[in-house]
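User: For my dataset I need records formatted as: sequence, then structure tokens, nothing else. Please produce one.
Assistant:
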Amino acid sequence: MAIELKIKVSAVSKAVGKPFENLYIKTLRGFFEEITRLTLFTFRFFKELVKPPYEVNEFLKQAYLIGYKSIPLVVITGFIMGLVLTIQSRPTLVEFGAESWLPAMVAISIIREIGPVITALIFAGKVGSGIGAELASMKATEQIDAMEVSGINPFKYLVVTRIAAATIMLPVLVILADAVSLYGAYVGVNLKGDVSFHLFFLEVFAKLSFTDVLPAIIKTFFFGFAVGSIGCYRGYHASQGTEGVGVASNAAVVQGSLTIFILDMVVVQITSLFI
């Protein structure tokens, strides 16, 4: 009786465990297939980027839409970021008698890490979702197919221009956000103190070095490329129908934000070896 019960329990456990095992294998296979398709998509971007003709007018249009249209959101976010960081850091430094370190500490924190990452996340939320939704809607309404029929290369016209514009414009937005954040920090310092504009920025630039600025600016190019490429990939390969537009937009934001954190972690590890 005990042997028969063990056989039945074993058979039930195998029957229950097999679907979970198949689901795990299917999920793992789908992940690697998605990574492979995204890699091939990226290789195709570099191939089309150097091959004429060049869509200069469309690139400039996308640079305007991606960069200039994002300035108000970036400026507001940057100012609040610098102001809040200064207000939150001041009491702790005052407690240890290190209030004079506040400008340098806030500047290094913003320029090295907080400014690029927060701006890139805002960029992924606004630009990444916009690119994914726009291309997915064009896919759903068969505009991409119509471009192929009319002899236009839709990949070069739609994808290459958007990825290139996102890669170039994000560093510009990060520099602007850093500058506005430092001004917000200056305002935060003067809420409970009296520090001149000249003295504040003298303290800021006295502690900054090229090893703080250059890695932070360089990694924003990778952030912009990741946001643009993931948004274009999700939109360009979206499923048909209005549901695919929402899925593509959501996936572009989630995967773009996650990629930003992963790239930031890798860049921090690399730069720590040379500093």
